[in-house]
Amino acid sequence: MERRQTTGAGIALALLLVVGLVVVLTDDDGDGADACTALAVSGWTADAATTDEFARYGDDATRTDDWTGGDGNHSVRLPDGRTLWLVSDPYLGRVQPPPNRQGQPHAWRDTTLGTPAWTRNAALVMSADGRLERTLLGGTPGAPASLFPEPAAPLRQWRWPVHAVVEPRAPGSSEQVLRVLLWHRQEAQQPWIYGVPLATEVATLSLPDLRLEGITQVDDQSRVADPADRVVYGAAAVRRGGFTYVWGGTDGRTPDQAERSSRAHLARVPAGRLADRSAWRYWDGERWSREAARSAPVLGDGGRRGVGSAFSVVRRGDTWVLFTMDAGGPRGSGLTTVASYWACRPEGPWHGPDKAFTAPLPDDAGGGSGAAAYNPQAHPGAGSGDGLLLGYDVNWLDASADTVSAHVHRNVALYRPRFVRLHLDAAE
Questions:
Q1: Before 362, cis peptide (omega within 30)?
Q2: Residue 356 is part of which domain span?
């Protein structure tokens, strides 16, 4: 298959912000909070420094086996102050600096030898002072491959990395490791042009050298008949009160389901056991269950209320905030607007959506007619400055090979993350 799966973790995503009031409740999940303050986005500013750093690194032609663009772009702060950025479907190689034969204001990917090289996943290492330094890949320097290798199977399969957590190697251990949640997918026919979800996996990387030690499956969804009902976990993960809370969701936003939002689900795992399948518990609407099949949605009505197939959750004070692109439905605005929900507990109830802002696109994104923002991700441990750093991906909606070649291959600004800083305050 010729490339375009340039939409790593998916083009159907949603950013959600927060409304305001104070909710009082009794918390029985070990989180410790008995009240929270409803938050609202009071403003936002473009974060040019972080956006420009990714552009600088991508345009650097020193090496031919490093990142020039990609999506996914989840981040995790490492104990030594570095930040690791997990990326899906990255392009590798060099770009053509302007001026070029088409006079584009942005650098082009070098397509003189055909489609630019790419892998299914990789990671970028950023120094403590915010400078991207190197790309982590599998394979060899002369033949780079995915950091998290593709499984051997009759049909093409791959792994997309999503959220990651630093945790003890085992409960009570003083040694820390990095656990990376993976979405295991398999190629399929229309309308599943980005593949169908098969399972949630957890990769373990050693610290500080970031060596891949192994990959463990924690939830198998391959026997769920309708791929739109399969739940994959790792869209967001937050450590709190001795547990890691892991959000996942259905992946039902296919082209023939434009009016359908995805449903968010929740699991929790004791700290140090994220790679232990037996330790996972799933919220069934009333309690934590051992059975993944009993998981009930914590957010999503199939219409206006819901999430995209990728979203992000953070905790600000006593409040949980979920960001996503505005969901479908008659009143949803889709891949244009960042929205949010808030809750006092990780399992909800979630209040919203509250529309926040329209994600800015590159100035030369073809008039905006085919470019779209997606995959909003909060990065509380990355960057410096006031407010919450939030990134999102940009791509061309038409995934046909001709369109990708005409736009994405020839304009690197269309397949790189962009960043803003959000300011959250108590709603009046």
A1: no
A2: 22-426
